[in-house]
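user: Please supply your own:

assistant:
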Amino acid sequence: MSDNNQGQSNTNTHIFYAGFGRRILAAVIDAIILSIIGAFSAYYLGLTEGWRMLLMMLRHQEVRTMDGILVTSILPGQVATFLLVTLILIPWLYYAILESSKNQATMGKMAARAVVTDLHGRRITFARASLRHFSKIISLVLFFSGFFAIAYTRHSQGFHDIIAACLVYYRPEKIE
């Protein structure tokens, strides 16, 4: 075997970057899974009061506790806790743990046959997966341009991939 293999077992291995469409599919699947996990977590952690109060706030109704007491704070503690757990903690742990695992992919990425690696094709650490996850905020805040960059960059990288020095590969199914 030649040194050009760089540790790969097959000299005919081609590298395919996961494109925009494949990553959108993975994101939709992950969003559905995260919604289910968030709903069960909110229920079992007793965060449904925060959900109920958030709905009242969104409907511009008077926010009241279950006992009927009027809540006058801008962001009630129950709502803040609900948002912290369901929108920050659960997604962060989901993405960081799964992308730094031996599978190198979330459930959505597994379904789309995509894996997250560092620039050398190795598994990423939990810290790098965390950086990649929270860097998505930059891609989002810039009017989604960081995500649209996936369709136009050489290695199909979004801003969050560039910041965290990651690549997302597509692994075609091997038929033997």
Observations:
- Residues 16-170 form one domain.
